From TrEMBL:
GO terms for molecular function: catalytic activity. This is Pimeloyl-ACP methyl ester carboxylesterase. The lineage of its organism: Bacteria, Bacillati, Actinomycetota, Actinomycetes, Propionibacteriales. Gene3D superfamilies: alpha/beta hydrolase. PANTHER family: AB HYDROLASE-1 DOMAIN-CONTAINING PROTEIN-RELATED (PTHR37017), ESTERASE_LIPASE_THIOESTERASE DOMAIN-CONTAINING PROTEIN (PTHR37017:SF11). Residues 4-229 form the AB hydrolase-1 domain. It comes from Actinopolymorpha rutila.
Length: 258
């Protein structure tokens, strides 16, 4: 069994993961998908991470991690700024960004767009697909392929939750990427973050080649089975890191006993 901590993006809520959660729980895994305090204008990225850690509760206890299985932190879209903070605090076994924004140390979310060349990538892809990428219509931009009723419910639940200025304007607080194995997933039909954009950015910022899945930006609502399959497939990659951490913990405990 593993525990998957699922962090939603901007203008969204934990409900966005409910179909993926059902798939993971059907396989015997545990899930946590909290709402970030996006409506609180004073909440910064630290407060976002606090909310997730609190929701995880004793599932994040390192002393009981072996019995509970892997702890996997997943961040979608703007959740990419929060997920590494949570993974670092909880010494997660794995960090997965799904079309997640990849921050650099000291980089504020408001600066990320220009720093990464996002607008140029959108314009280039829009020339290819006739303006679908970067569309003003949220049903095209975010929810292409999502059943209309689900997309409408997602928009209803996300009203007023675009994110606080305290998170958007403040520098990302980590001095370096956390020492946690990291995977990246891009969605091939994403009209908000074009696939080619992340084919370039993930190697540049993380030094890894992204895995690719079909689906729109909010693929957790259009392709929940594929997302769950990919997350479960990643579990085998955590074994070396877990063994190394267990060895370190054993040495630490042995030194205390002496």
């Amino acid at each position: 069994m593993a525990t998957f901590v699922l962090i939603h993006g901007g203008g969204d809520v934990g409900w966005a993961w409910h179909l993926v959660e059902a798939k993971l729980r059907a396989r015997g895994h545990d899930t946590v998908a909290p709402d970030l305090p996006s409506e609180d204008e004073s909440a910064d990225l630290g407060a976002f991470a606090d909310a997730v850690v609190e929701a995880v509760g004793d599932r994040g206890d390192l002393s009981d991690r072996g019995a509970r299985g892997d702890l996997v932190v997943v961040g979608h879209s703007y959740g990419g700024f929060t997920a590494p903070l949570v993974a670092d605090r909880l010494s997660a076994d794995l960090l997965v960004l799904m079309a997640g924004m990849i921050p650099s140390p000291g980089e504020a979310p408001c600066d990320w767009w220009a720093n990464t060349g996002h607008s140029d990538a959108v314009a280039k892809q829009a020339e290819i697909d006739g303006g679908l990428t970067g569309s003003d219509d949220p049903y095209i931009l975010f929810y292409g392929g999502v059943p209309r009723s689900l997309a409408e419910e997602a928009l209803r639940r996300g009203q007023g939750r675009g994110g606080s200025s305290a998170t958007y304007d403040a520098p990302w607080p980590l001095a370096e990427w956390p020492d946690v194995p990291t995977k990246f997933v891009l969605f091939r039909e994403d009209r908000f973050f074009p696939a080619d954009f992340y084919r370039r950015l993930a190697p540049e910022r993380l030094g890894i080649t992204p895995d690719e899945l079909p689906g729109c930006h909010c693929a957790m609502l259009s392709r929940p089975r594929e997302l769950a399959d990919q997350l479960v497939a990643y579990l085998g990659s955590t074994e070396p890191a877990r063994a190394e951490r267990a060895a370190v913990e054993g040495e630490r405990n042995g030194s205390v006993k002496r």
